[in-house]
Design goal:
This protein is an alpha+beta fold. The chain has eleven helices and 14 strands. 30% of the residues lie in helices and 22% in strands.
């Protein structure tokens, strides 16, 4: 049986307001050569109201609550209704982030949506979101990097801010993985879920604050370890592709586990080296919420205190590109992120891709 609940981001004390970005030519004393600091000034998230517990899964496939908890740390997950799509969750998350940042839709210069489960192949979910939000002057694009999507999108936003091209960017990570999940495959269906998170990134004026470093990596040779066979130009939709269940996610779990631990630990090390700080300086580590054992192994490899690792996998399971931004929003609202804190966000995903960002809050 599936139970229902409603989850919204509770109010938080907003960060100190940054000066409204002005065109470079109008800023007194503007440096001739940026980079400009990229500051996260607001966050928000949204998940479906429908809750699917491990007990519900026990009635669907050959599994058990004990097996799922011991191997993944997951107890429940949020699942979209048949008529809900990525832009529906992205819209609510984005509105909460904009409100948190004190930004009007008309102020947004660019929307980047990280997703592999957009509303449709085209137009982009970012364009759909632009229209729904009323961000009439914003450019819009989707970015696909699997579960590393939000990290890639946030890094992209930083580049636009740093060069002075844009002053206010909305970055969203959203997935509706339940729509590409084979609910007869117990190895994957227990892991996946739906949700969205959003962040407003603005041009700041205080050096040493905001996104200090980013690290992005990929290994395309490992693509077959996590992929969806059909739905693109290689294997377009057909009666045969549907019959053969080719429109569902497929994963080599054992191979992914080993790569995930090594790649996320490696991402943290790159971030620390780039910013010339030590692991002891990190106040909080926010890893991709794919599997509790992976998260614990990463912390152990880094010799990082487990109490300073943020985990919410028991509530939301794996929402792919949305996990890190949902976790950041929850961490903020729980008082786990305070001004001056050094926070690392890391992830790995289909591609294979991995990477991270280091933020001075």
């Amino acid at each position: 049986m599936v139970s229902s609940a409603t989850t919204e981001s509770p109010p938080v004390t907003p960060p100190a307001a940054e000066p409204r970005p002005e065109p470079l030519s109008e800023q007194a004393g503007a440096p001739a050569c940026p980079p400009w600091p990229a500051i996260i000034t607001g966050t928000g998230f949204d998940v479906p109201s429908r809750v699917m517990t491990n007990a519900d899964l026990e009635r669907m496939v050959d599994t058990s609550d004990q097996w799922i908890v011991e191997r993944t740390g997951m107890k429940e997950r949020r699942i979209a209704e048949p008529d809900e799509a990525a832009s529906d969750f992205a819209l609510r998350a984005a509105r909460r982030a904009l409100t948190d940042a004190g930004v009007e839709p008309a102020e947004v210069d660019l929307i980047i949506v990280a997703t592999v489960t957009g509303d449709m192949p085209f137009p982009s979910t970012a364009c759909v979101l632009q229209d729904k939000l009323g961000c009439t002057r914003a450019a819009a694009m989707d970015l696909g990097a699997g579960c590393t999507g939000f990290i890639y999108a946030l890094s992209t936003a930083r580049q636009f801010i740093a060069t002075g091209s844009y002053g206010t960017i909305l970055v969203v990570g959203v997935e509706v993985l339940s729509k590409i999940t084979d609910w007869t495959d117990r190895s994957t269906c227990v892991l996946l879920a739906d949700g969205a998170g959003a962040a407003v990134v603005r041009r700041g004026s205080e050096l040493g604050r905001g996104i200090l470093a980013e690290y992005l990596a990929a290994d395309g040779s490992r693509g077959p370890d996590l992929y969806m066979p059909a739905g693109g130009s290689r294997v377009p939709a057909s009666a045969e592709s549907v019959r053969d269940r080719l429109h569902y996610l497929r994963m080599n779990g054992n191979a992914i586990f080993k790569v995930a631990v090594r790649s996320m630990a490696d991402a943290v090390r790159h971030l620390l080296a780039a910013a010339r700080v030590k692991v002891e300086d990190l106040r909080l580590l926010i890893p991709h919420q794919a599997n509790l054992r992976i998260i614990e192994a990463v912390a152990k490899m880094l010799k990082f205190p487990p109490e300073r690792v943020f985990i919410n996998i028991e509530k939301y399971a794996n929402t792919s590109s949305a996990t890190t931004i949902i976790a950041l929003d929850e961490a903020r609202r729980a008082g786990r992120v305070r001004p001056g804190d050094l926070v690392a966000m890391v992830a790995f995903g289909a591609g294979l891709t991995w990477g991270g960002v280091l933020i001075r809050w």
